[in-house]
Amino acid sequence: MTWPLLVSVVAAVAVSPLSAAWTAALAAGQHRGWWRLRPVSARRWATVAAVTAALVLLAAAGHPSVAWWLLAVGGGVLAVVDAQTELLPARLTYPLAALIAAALVAAAVIGGDAGPLLRAGLAALTVGVLWLALWFLSPRTTGLGDARLAALTSGVLGWVGWADVWQALLLTFLLAALTAVTMAARSRRGLRRTVTVPMGPALLAGAVLALWL
């Protein structure tokens, strides 16, 4: 493990008590003061720390590194909340998107090349519209939170290239299908049972895994 990667993982684990506190507040539907540090169970902290560390490790292949680190840390919170409540709170997604956009703009300014930034914006817009259309056609299978997160992950992937955007979408649906089959198989009614799959974890996992293909 290289020193920059080690620092990224250590930094993610260091902020995990705050991240875990956010998951508790957001999962409880708290709208005010959800960003404050609060006591959480050891199990919740360990879960958030493990998910975040895994995302940071996989996101290490992405560039710019600051944007991917932000996506991994914020995504860890969103993944845990979505798995627990099947909701992706806009009150976290929007600030996270603003921070990531700022990181991408800074990288474009420092690198003196606006091409990747424009591609990132176009990717976010394109995939966001596609997911909005999916939500309109089938509101029971997806939500606005899924569309927001899909646009965000696609924007970061768009900086890397269009191939990664489409690979991530394919991986997302494959992971979601695998999750649905697993959830149905574990239920008493087996595969005959209709299940609702939280798309947040699949979107985030698909995004970071696409970097390695």
* Amino-to-carboxy terminus distance: 20 Å
Number of domains: 1
Cα gyration radius (Å): 17 Å
Tell me the overall shape.
globular
Number of helices: 9
What letter string, H or E per element, gives the SSE order? Answer: HHHHHHHHH
Global structural class = mainly alpha
Q: Helix proportion of residues, in percent?
A: over 70%
> Main β-sheet, in a few words?
none
- DSSP summary, beta strand count: 0
Beta-strand proportion:
under 5%
Mean pLDDT: 93
Low-confidence stretches: none
Transmembrane segments: 51-80, 92-111, 117-137, 168-185, 194-212
Family: Belongs to the peptidase A24 family.
Signal peptide: 1-20
Protein name: Prepilin type IV endopeptidase peptidase domain-containing protein
